[in-house]
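RECORD TYPE: protein structure
NAME: Probable peptidoglycan glycosyltransferase FtsW
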Amino acid sequence: MNAATLTGKIKAKAALVDPNRYGRSDRSAIGRWFWEIDRVLLLMVAMLIGIGLIAVAAASPAAAQRYSGGSVRFAELHYFYRQIGWIMLSMPVMILISMMPRERARRLSLIGAALFFGLLAIVPIVGPEVNGARRWIAFGVGQVQPSEFLKPFFVIAMAWLLSLGVGERKVPIFILSGVITGMVAVLLMLQPDFGSTIIFVTVWVAMLAIAGLDLRILGGLALAGIVGVILAYFFYPVATVRIDGFLFGEGDNFQVENAMRTLTAGGLFGMGPGGGTRKFGLPEPHTDYIFSVIGEEFGLIACIAIACLYLGIVARVLVKLLDEESSVALLAAAGLAVEFGLQAMINMAVNVQIAPSKGMTLPFISYGGSSMLALSIGMGLLLAFTRRNPYLTRSPYVVKWGGESVYP
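PREDICTED:
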């Protein structure tokens, strides 16, 4: 085959991906985003947000009765209306971030990681104390929880750092990532926030495994984690109280016990929207224990469906990454998926009384401004790093089209 014939075949195949043929009359950012985004993943996230609105509406009367004292207009649905406002703010943020090229998303994450790490460092100094913890920074119009925003940015920053050692197994890179994770863990435990500490460390170890760290070292880290929990039990009062309450029933277990009773009160199919009564006895029905409210009003079947939806999101991302060639994208997307799924799993485990209380929200379902905005940033980054042109893997031929590589 001569060069002219080969060139003709390449041009002919390149024509097959003409954007006009697939409804993309221009190469605008919105048009490319629509065709490259994982629309199934986006649909599942939208389903979670819709379920969350229904759940917050169900939990809002109980929360309003406890916290508003009836002094707020439309008090029964006070938190529902506020949640709508947070969603209207957060969803455009998620979409805008998901439209970013990977390189720009990486740079944004590195800046965000540095910023929120700095804020996390000053939380114990300037943060107001709420229920014995300092986790927030007040900014006049509201409060921000730096650890929530640091989670997605930390994952991308670790993905970039660990990618520098992929293939060559550069030990100093792994050690540096461990030092950074350890600093974050110490700052979190000063707040104290033992639950978030577990998430950061677990996600870091999972990313090390994906990056190809030696199994013997991973085994050592697992052993170190067990030793760390034991030491925390003896020398970290917060962990001592939580573990004693979970294992031996000591201390105040009202929250987790009442959550379990509430979750099972509705049976398989629930008591119907607005029919729940036990939710009025929950301390945080719209945030930490919203999963129990769902169980009471919509039944255990609905709870199982929600758990399957979270599992589907994580599985969708991991399967999509099987043929990913970029080490940064692979580590970033996998880390974000693990972090998202782990947070959901911990919240549900607390509600069904198989884990001690952590004070952790259920992603995209629990009420919360900082939580909703931070999760939207994380999901936007996940969508950005899983974007892929669906027509790029159909031929080994590569041509340049508009300054980009195209696989006709």
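COMMENT: The CA atoms of residues 95 and 349 lie 30 Å apart.
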